[in-house]
Amino acid sequence: MVAAITAAEAGAKTVVIEQKLQAAQSILATGNGRCNLANISLAPKRYNHPEFVAEVCDSSWLNDVLGFWNACGLRWTLEEDRLYPVSRQAASVRNVLLARAERAGVIVACGRKVEQVEINDDNCTIKILDETREPAQYCSLIANAAIIAVGGGASSRIAAGLNLEQVAESPILAPLACENSPLASLNGRRAEVIAQIYRGTFPQARERGEVLLRDYGISGIVCFNLSRHAQPGDVITLDFAPDCNASELRQITDPKLTGELVDGCLDGILDPLIAAQIIKLAREQWTLADDDRADAPSSDVQADPLSYALALVKGFPLRVSGIAHPELAQVTRGGLAINQFEPTTLAIQSCPRLFACGEALDIDADCGGFNLAWAWKSGMVAGNAAAQLH
Ligand SMILES: Cc1cc2nc3c(=O)[nH]c(=O)nc-3n(C[C@H](O)[C@H](O)[C@H](O)COP(=O)(O)OP(=O)(O)OC[C@H]3O[C@@H](n4cnc5c(N)ncnc54)[C@H](O)[C@@H]3O)c2cc1C
């Protein structure tokens, strides 16, 4: 929609072909219905291909995105670094977008699915299945330029028809399943943690924030961000007392230096239900099998219930078995390979009439408004360049 509006405002006759019966519906689910539309700390390093993102989105990136929304009549507010519509309703973002598209003369053709795109010397032929007819009928649209803006998980079919290079797709920004999690009984409890991923002995990524314990593993924004780096077999550790170092923790839990692990001794620092489970596991000397981390508790520590409980508080290990509930994933990694694009226009080098933007490309980022900021800005770049061909 952003690409279409930009192209239309630059003078091109523009049609959006949308398979759903309503346009821009995906916005409604974003940010838990509130649409975290951008982040004031936009930076290429937050993305999987920082150099490419830096070439597409120059230093005016945030200004361009906010300028676009300002011109739509949207007002926004900040929560830490994250930008939300001031109404805190994703419907505000969608409604102003649709209204601006209408003002710009964009034709929005819903209930039509793009099946194939053909590139000819002086135009593109877009083959569409019109599902608003009974029975559904095929039709074609001939255009000077086409922009692939199908989001994650949908570009492979179009790419195959055009011989475009495609990076295998997988869901990310999703809950993580953990093998036999001893925290499964705490399903639904939340905690502020520092979570860290290890592959064998080596730390891979670290993130602070809220984790949601689930019967299958873990969820929450911290987990979503770590899911960009996690592989099956990795160990995730949760530090349940991120603001307490080990000696402060010992002072609080054992003020009289008895060395005893007393029920309730962690209740002033942790959710008592999480604390009770950690104490139980420490007393049972529960361990994670094949834990190769250099800082995994030694057998001496495991043999001392108080020391072991405190070690589990500062780094509770869970074994990742993969993405849980791919249908809850916010983003698809993979898609159209970036090396085939001209970064200043997002045209495909081998077919200059064909452009792409948003999640259709192999670009992904952390939670926090970065994925939508990429979608908006890349849409502006592609829409503007495509309009030059009209
Ligand atoms: C639950 C959820 C919450 C999220 N929250 C946030 C957030 O708060 N902040 C953030 O930055 N990111 C968020 N994201 C990610 C963000 O929504 C996406 O990165 C962004 O929407 C990608 O935009 P896009 O235009 O590339 O693709 P999409 O928004 O997916 O739009 C693609 C459109 O193309 C249509 N389409 C697909 N195939 C065809 C076809 N063959 N023919 C016709 N039409 C087709 C689809 O129906 C869809 O309407 C969230 C994602 C999810 C799932």
Topology summary:
Layout (H helix, E strand, L loop, with lengths): L1 H8 L5 E4 L19 E2 L10 H7 L4 H11 L4 E4 L2 E4 L4 H15 L2 E4 L1 E8 L4 E7 L6 E7 L2 E3 L6 H8 L3 E7 L3 E3 L11 E10 L2 E12 L3 E3 L1 H6 L8 E5 L6 H8 L18 H13 L14 H5 L1 H10 L1 E8 L7 E6 L4 E2 L4 E2 L2 E6 L13 H18 L3
Parallel strand pairs: 1-5, 9-20
Antiparallel strand pairs: 2-4, 3-4, 6-7, 7-8, 10-17, 11-14, 11-16, 12-13, 12-15, 13-14, 15-16, 18-19, 19-20
Helix pairs in contact: 1-4, 1-11, 8-10
Flavin-adenine dinucleotide binds next to β1, β6 and α11.
Entry keywords:
390 residues, alpha+beta, 6-stranded antiparallel β-barrel, 4-stranded mixed beta sheet, 11 helices, 28% helix, binds flavin-adenine dinucleotide
Give a verbal description of the structure.
The chain is an alpha+beta fold and 390 residues long. Helix content is 28%, strand content 27%. It has a six-stranded antiparallel β-barrel with strand order 11-14-13-12-15-16. The chain has a four-stranded mixed beta sheet with strand order 9-20-19-18, with helices on one face. It is elongated. The relative contact order is 0.19. The mean pLDDT is 96. Residues 17-20, 26, 29-31, 35-36, 113-114, 149-151, 154, 330-331, 358-360, 369-372, 375 line the site of flavin-adenine dinucleotide.
